[in-house]
Amino acid sequence: MSVPAIIALVGLSGSGKSTVARLLAARLGWRLCDTDALVEQMAGRPIPAIFASEGEAAFRDQETIALTVALAEPNTVVATGGGIVLRDVNRALLREKALVVWLDAPTEVLIARLRTHNEERPLLAGDDPAARLESLRRQRSALYREVAHLMIDTSEASPEEVVERIVGALIENRKPRT
User: Fold this and answer.
1) CB burial class (10 A; 0-12, 13-18, 19+) of residue 66?
2) How far is 110 from 127, CA to CA, in rounded Å?
3) CATH code for the domain of 60
4) Cβ contacts of residue 75 below 8 Å, gap of 6+?
5) Is residue 161 part of a domain?
6) pLDDT tens track for 63-99
7) What is the pLDDT of residues 10-25, one digit of tens each?
8) Contact 1, 149 (CB under 8 A)
9) What is the 3-state secondary structure (H, E, C) of 23-39?
10) Could you give the residue ranges of the DSSP H alpha helices within 55-155?
11) What angle do CA 136, 37, 145 make, to 5 degrees?
12) How far apart are CA 88 and CA 11, in angstroms?
């Protein structure tokens, strides 16, 4: 693989995609793009409102457009929404255009992280978010694995340590093969 000009982070909600993407972009001096923020910007309203009024399929349509925009410029770190891998076209775009890093952690760690943020997560709504997150994990793990060039367990690592592992993988990627 040649040296990537785009790094995309995938994983479940709470895995650290947004935090790591921000730190990684700063570390590399690259542009930062968050597909969820881009969807909200293009739609002019928050994601929960899109889900409520138009449904998940409409949101996923907008998410594909946002991913295409995010992957258009080199030297970009892209934080994706957790369900970005659900569509074949998105997986193909990610594989073709980016070094894809799958961030993951055990469900209890993800839930603890999500509880510290005051963000509404439409796919985690309900009485048992842990069960819902486990269901999402079962649906998505194989898809994350399919697109990922690198997988990092973020449960025991600080965001800064995760960034250093990604940078290390980039450096390793630049070494000539013998």
Assistant:
1) buried
2) 16
3) 3.40.50.300
4) 5, 6, 28, 29, 30, 31
5) yes
6) 999 999 999 999 999 999 999 999 999 999 999 999 9
7) 999 999 999 999 999 9
8) yes
9) HHHHHHCCEEEEHHHHH
10) 56-70, 88-97, 107-115, 129-147
11) 35
12) 16
